[in-house]
Amino acid sequence: MTTDLGAKTVIGSVLVANRGEIARRIFRTCRELGVATVAVFSDPDADAPFVREADAAVRLPGAAPADTYLRGDLVIAAARAAGADAVHPGYGFLSENAEFAQAVLDAGLTWIGPPPSAIAAMGVKTRAKELMAEAGVPVLTVAGEPTHEDLPLLVKAAAGGGGRGMRVVRELEQLEGELAAARQEALAAFGSDEVFVEPYVETGRHVEVQLLADGDGTVWAVGERDCSVQRRHQKVVEEAPAPLLADDTRARLHEAARAAARAIGYVGAGTAEFLLAPDGRFFFLEMNTRLQVEHPVTECVTGLDLVALQLLVAEGGSLPGDEPPAPHGHAIEVRLYAEDPARDWQPQTGVVERLDLPGVTAGFAPPRAGERAGLRLDAGVESGSEVGVHYDAMLAKVIAWAPTRAEAARRLAGALERARIHGLTTNRDLLVQVLRHPEFLAGRVDTAFLTRHPGAGAPDKDDVALAALAAALGDAAANRGPIAGGWRNVPTHPQVKRYAHDGVEHEVRYRLTRDGLRAETHPDVALVSCAPDRVVLEVDGVQRAFGLARYAAGGGAPLVHVDSPLGAVALTVLPRFPEPERETAAGSLLAPMPGTVVRVEAAVGDVVTAGQPLLWLEAMKMQHRITAPTAGVVTELRAAVGQQVDTGALLAVIGESVDRESQQEGTPQS
User: Fold this and answer.
1) C-alpha to C-alpha distance for 509 and 497, rounded to whole angstroms
2) CB under 8 Å to 56, separation ≥6 — which residues?
3) Whole-model pTM?
4) How far apart are CA 627 and CA 631, in angstroms?
5) 290 catalytic, yes or no?
6) Which terminus of the chain is more exposed, N or C, with fewer CB under 10 A?
7) pLDDT-based confidence at 484, cuts 50/70/90?
């Protein structure tokens, strides 16, 4: 329980009003400080790692965030039931909800965050911009009604962040529709449909300043971070310090951030975000009144534990000194998402069969004193965890730090490349490509980086075919024992294995003879060694090892994950004799992911064009637009608002458009 020692409060137990990676991060610091921990969890999270790591846990019945993690009353009741005396909100959910912060205080609990008044001041971005302008901080604005001269424009949600409720508008005719879509997404994500419009800077950089302030008036600007590499306005790669930033610009950014904090009486950890234009000017975007997802890079270059400092300030303590430690070295963080960049970043659901990252030196922790380089993993999942549709698709944050930026990028890319991530499609390959891209290595990054450099896409088909051969040989070893017993006395009939990758079938035909491997599709490949989990092949005089892992895939077709220096490949095992495929009507619109139908803009009988938006699915906190696959008439519509659908579910059917007049009896066709 909380103990009062004069003006200072000593926290004894903290409830984390959050889940996943950030809950584990806060628990680690609490354990180190001797503070007891309490988790709250929804039904899908009952077996999650963060629940097991807490000293106590309280169930929030239900699955959707609106029924669980966004129910402030249930969270406060859980804190009371578990005997917690403080609440840490993490990030997302209720972390920037001023009413919840006030309710925590009214319940006699310690709020580990800024004053509710500061949260409220920054909670609505339109009001926040007005306050910042009054404080002399530069802001982006559109004077009056938008005109063609203001294009392109950015529609943004006034509450919340993370890219939700955000739309780029390049033609004024699109503005009304995008405003409506943004309002609906913002309402679903943040409970407010207020949106606003500002100029969209195409090639700006997203640079933010980490702030820490105590109750005595000390305000730290703890260095800056560059978060420019983004997809769909969500950060993917973050680093500290920001590269290619002039010293005077850095100084002005830090001073503007401190001015922003002082203007609203800020206390605790927060972040002032800015858009840095190519000409060196910068503009205030928003202030996140909480800990940021990307806080580890700041910890890695300063050695600070930002969560420990949050607790210190919440207890009424003072920051140790007038200035924070100067950053040293460089740190880069990537967000590992369960999503498919090649398919418009579609989120993935299922089981994380394996998550193994080599070379990790820290988990959820700043570097140890004197540590010059290392690799940190902050993961919300582990091998065996299930990823569902209700929450964000981020699996983990991987952070490398080193004396130089080039060393940090190389260390991080190498670790990701060697990682074994099985069960779900992820953005791992894209992250490696970004970290090794010449433009990134030169520090030339901006918010359009992934638009210009979308990545190489699917693995090379020859590499996939070689992986399929390794999978087939490993399967033979698993079924027959050591390779010495794997050869056949009747070599005229080859072994046949069939796999699918990215919709393409790969048939492997091979024989194991006394003279070695004879693979029809790879006549020049020699087999060096073969075991169920590792096959070594020699190709053009170069030996390469292929790691193999097989999974049942939850009753579906078995999967084989093949990891090698050529890349990671997930293969679906096909039956030897293909079954007749279930016929799907032409023009069928199938759900690309599991989710909830939140909007339908079509009816049976409507004439539609190819690519026309028909309905929207909500999955993993984002809304995904589903468009007509072809032009025609809607002949079937099986989706309704509020309906839960699985991947592959039939949503609608688009039939051929018919010229009704030409079909009238007796009317000849011309």
Assistant:
1) 7
2) 36, 37, 38, 39, 82, 83
3) 0.85
4) 10
5) yes
6) C
7) very low
